Amino acid sequence: MVLMNRSRTEARRSRRAWRSRTGVRFSSALRHEWFLGFSWATSVAFLVYGDALLSGLEHPLWLVVIFAWLFGAVLGSALAVVRHAEHLAVYLGEPYGTLLLTLAVTFVEVTSIAAVMLHGANNPSLARDTLFAVVMIILNGMVGLSLLLGGWRHREQQYNLQGANAYLTVILPLVVLTLILPNFTQTTPGPTLSRAQEIVLALVAIGLYLTFLTLQTGRHRGYFILANNEEDALAGPLRAPRSPGHPALQHAALLVAYLLPVVILAEQFAHPVDYLIETLRFPAALGGVIIAVLVATPEAIGAVRAALANHMQRSINIFLGSVLSTIGLTVPAIIVLSELTRHDIVLGVEHSDVVMILLTLFLCVVTFGSGRTNVIQGVVHVMLFIAYLALIAQA
């Protein structure tokens, strides 16, 4: 009898302890995922009251409020998507982890481009402006800031030269074929490609990206590691630690839960962006810059953190991998979208942008040609990024 009472007491204690642990985990999840409630509340608000909320954009203060509200909601959701994709990447391993990270970021970018491109007046140059902005923001702004802050704290930083060369070997032809070659083709007028040429470009982009992914996660994985440090063997955002309290299924559910508001809010965000460009006559390239900032910010945070922690190899894997995935996957997706919706797209950059992109590519070859980085290289990239912003402002 005594043994039975003791067994019952221990069972009750075990149940109370389990409920307590469950409650703590649930409370912790609520604290960490509070933004999910904000993003869904924003989505519901614009789905139900969108016409009323977007009807007063002619008032400058209200335009700023709506723009900041939607921009913050989309950016916060994108940051959460990348965070949970990082956790899943740890569980899945390579190459599936890298592919998931890439697809998550590409999905956000394609969704944002499609929402703005299909809303309002036809904007055939939006995809080009976004791709150009992503290249300039990452290869000048993100690279410059990472090298500047990392070099300022650690004087000189090292990375695997073979890995950087592998990235640039694929990035250079993809950028030139996508953003410069259309200016010189004669099949169609202007900086555009014919349908057959677009199909070839899409196949080349996907083929090169998949080849690089195979190299990176297979026989040449060591190219992307410095001094056999497994922590640096990443291609994408900063590696997330394995979290025993958050199983893979939970991260997958939260990733989807954050992705849905991105889809909903991207369409709503197209309204203030179009109003800025079409009504207030802001530079047309501004739409591409805004989308590029949404896409690049999560990875920029990871790259700068890695550089400050003296993990330059990890930082390089982030920003060069980001450019590669943007060109290698976003371009085919936009080409398919334009064919399905019968929206023309302009790909070739023009005038001073051609000089800026060629100068950027040349500077990257010089910067990542020695295996070491320092402050001066970061300063040069930052200054080139400032010149890019000045050219947009004067457009």
From TrEMBL:
What is this entry's stated membrane topology? Multi-pass membrane protein
Provide one Gene Ontology cellular component: plasma membrane
Please list which residues make up the signal peptide: none
Query: What's the protein name?
Result: Ca2+:H+ antiporter
Q: Which InterPro entries match?
A: Alkaline_pH_Ca-Antiporter, NaCa_Exmemb, NCX_ion-bd_dom_sf
Q: Report the residue ranges that make up the Sodium/calcium exchanger membrane region domain in this protein.
A: 63-217, 252-392
Keyword annotations from UniProtKB, A to Z = Membrane, Transmembrane, Transmembrane helix
**Protein's cellular compartments:** Membrane
Query: Which residue ranges traverse the bilayer?
Result: 60-84, 96-118, 130-152, 164-184, 196-215, 252-270, 282-304, 316-337, 349-368, 375-393
Short name of any one Pfam family annotated for the protein: Na_Ca_ex
One example GO MF annotation:
sodium:proton antiporter activity
Q: Which Gene3D superfamilies match?
A: NCX, central ion-binding region (1.20.1420.30)
The organism that produces this protein has a lineage beginning with: Bacteria, Pseudomonadati, Pseudomonadota, Alphaproteobacteria, Hyphomicrobiales
